[in-house]
Amino acid sequence: MKFFNSSKEKENFDEFYQKSSTKELINYINKLNALSIMFEDEKYFTSQRRYEKVPAIDSQTARLLYFIALMKKPSNILEIGFGSGFSAYSLYCGAVNNIRHFITYEHEKKRFTRGKKYIESKKIDIELIFDDFNEQSIKRLMEKEKIVAFDLVFIDGVKREYPVYFDQVKKIICRDSILIFDNILFNGKLLVLNRKKDGKNTEGAKILYSFNENLAKDKDFSTLFLPVGDGIAISIKN
Ligand SMILES: C[S@@+](CC[C@H](N)C(=O)[O-])C[C@H]1O[C@@H](n2cnc3c(N)ncnc32)[C@H](O)[C@@H]1O
């Protein structure tokens, strides 16, 4: 029985099946990154995510944050949404030699208490604030700490609030500041929910969907959207 009509067809077939799957190649890249960037406390954060069910960035996003901080060398960092602290820890590790102020907000008591204990035990210079992030609170802190502007902001609070956070954060950054938005794919459900008329989380997904579109069109920022973790947007203030 003849399987191929020409030697070219056979060549194409061989070439196709010699390629690794996309998943295999991505796993390979992830393994290289895990070898290249090692986090002393990674196990603590992954167990917080698995056993305590605290939502957190994945290991690849952590490495991306670390690397952005390493390149940017920010002195003032702000985070909205501490959770168990994996993102704060990754950014901190990358920026450690230049940080003057690292402020992060967590409004859930249990997460705040656990986070505070962790930060103190590690003697990390991060100021964890037990409050709902809002303009008055951050402006008060900036005045007290004599912070003129933040040069890196990581936004990982309630997804439907992203447009509000963005408006608030715009007032406390300067030229070349970097804003990073996590979960721009809404736990992978963004497109499915955006197509729906109503139902659970549909409104939140629609808000985030138009937020992404507006951010992409915003000429005051240069933005790169990346399919890392649950989707990340990195914006630089022009
Ligand atoms: C996705 S989790 C943060 C994960 C963390 N950034 C990480 O990757 O390790 C979001 C956290 O933000 C907190 N949060 C949400 N909105 C907030 C707000 N407006 N102010 C303070 N904390 C907030 C939630 O309680 C939750 O713990």
What small molecules does this complex bind?
S-adenosylmethionine
Strand ordering within the main sheet: 3-2-1-4-5-7-6
Can you tell me the residue ranges where pLDDT is under 50 for at least 5 consecutive residues? none
Largest sheet: 7 strands, mixed
Instruction: Provide the gyration radius in Å.
Output: 21 Å
Mean pLDDT across residues: 95
Helicity range of the residues? 40-55%
Order of helices and strands: HHHHEHEHEHEHEHHEE
The tally of strands reads: 7
Helix count?
Answer: 10
Instruction: Based on Cα principal axes, name the global outline.
Output: globular
- Helix/strand class: alpha/beta
| CATH H-level superfamily title | Vaccinia Virus protein VP39
The portion of residues forming beta strands comes to 15-25%
- The count of domains is 1
Question: What is the CA–CA distance across the termini?
Answer: 64 Å
Oligomer: single chain
Q: Examine the coordinates and then state which fold CATH places here, giving the name of the CATH topology.
A: Rossmann fold
- The CATH architecture can be given as 3-Layer(aba) Sandwich
In short:
The chain starts with 6 loop residues before the first helix and ends with a strand. By secondary structure, the protein is α/β, with parallel strands linked by helices. It contains ten helices and seven strands.
Please provide a written account of the structure.
The model has no long low-confidence stretch (mean pLDDT 95). The protein has one domain: 3-Layer(aba) Sandwich (Rossmann fold). It has helices spanning 7-18, 22-36, 42-51, 59-72, 86-95, 109-122, 135-145, 162-170, 190-195, 202-217, and strands at residues 76-80, 101-106, 127-130, 150-155, 173-182, 221-226, 232-237. It has 238 residues and is α/β, with parallel strands linked by helices. β1 (76-80), α5 and β2 form a beta-alpha-beta unit. Helices cover 49% and strands 18% of the residues. The structure holds S-adenosylmethionine. Residues 55-57, 80-81, 83-87, 105-108, 111, 132-133, 156-158 line the site of S-adenosylmethionine (SAM).
